[in-house]
Amino acid sequence: MSTLPEIALDRADDPLIIAGRVFRSRLLVGTGKYKDMEETRRATVASGAEIITVAIRRTNIGQNTDEPNLLDTIAPDRYTLLPNTAGCYNADDAVRTCRLARELLNGHDLVKLEVLGDQKTLFPDIVQTLSAAETLIKDGFKVMVYTNDDPIIAKRFEDMGCVAVMPLAAPIGSGLGIRNPYNIRTIVENAQVPILVDAGVGTASDAAVAMELGCDGVLMNTAIAGAGNPVLMASAMKKAIEAGREAYLAGRIPRKRFASASSPIDGTFF
How crowded is the C-beta side of 97, counted as CA atoms within 13 Å? Predict the structure, then answer.
């Protein structure tokens, strides 16, 4: 009697671990660009994500008492909030934003750092990002850092103490997918901390490719919130992340130039 091989259906058997915290989902999602709070809630639930990133400079989490509070929709006791420094263009602003988030969230220390270079490309300013990361790490923050897809810079962020490195796949919000899979793979192969693709994913197949490259997770916002049906796209992304991870663990067949028959003729009877 043959036995089927076990497959990783239980996410608890293959957790994502960031700064000592254990997560079942490898999909991280943002909260911007939705039409209203209810759509934000429904898409977040459909994604299965446990880590939710929040742009502190653009989202009310209690600093504006006369505006709707995101925390009434995304409950901190159900999700791990990941404050981010979106909209910051220098190290000082990024550090100040993280400190504000820590104050608003009762000492929360896990943050996503991004320092942008210009408004057109939204590429990271690496010099300013390095400066901000150094200050935040010394200040006790656990930094997940947005960077370009340069393996040397990615390793430098790891060596200085960032708890996760998040290279872009393509420009923020572009939906272009994985533009340089070879660099992403090199970053993954050299890393001792989680590597999560951040920016550029457009659809479910992009997310699956990122996971098949060996990435530990994917963070996205526009790909879900900008879809025709954000809730349905969130569900699709959840499945793509899971399928891509399982394919990576299973190990794909090598690429070959010519055919290889599924049913070889050697040993057949005529």
Answer: 27
- Residues in Cβ contact with 260 at an 8 Å cutoff, skipping those fewer than 6 apart: none
Which of 112, 238, 239, 256 does the annotation list as catalytic?
112
CA atoms within 13 A on the CB side of 268: 5
Q: Could you give the C-alpha distances from 241 to 207, 215, 220, 237, 252, in angstroms and in order?
A: 6, 10, 12, 6, 16
Write out pLDDT tens, residues 94-105.
999 999 999 988
For the question of residue 112 being annotated catalytic, the response is yes
* 187-244 pLDDT per residue, tens: 999 999 999 999 999 999 999 999 999 999 999 999 999 999 999 999 999 999 999 9
E runs forming strands in 68-132: 80-84, 110-113
pTM of the model: 0.90
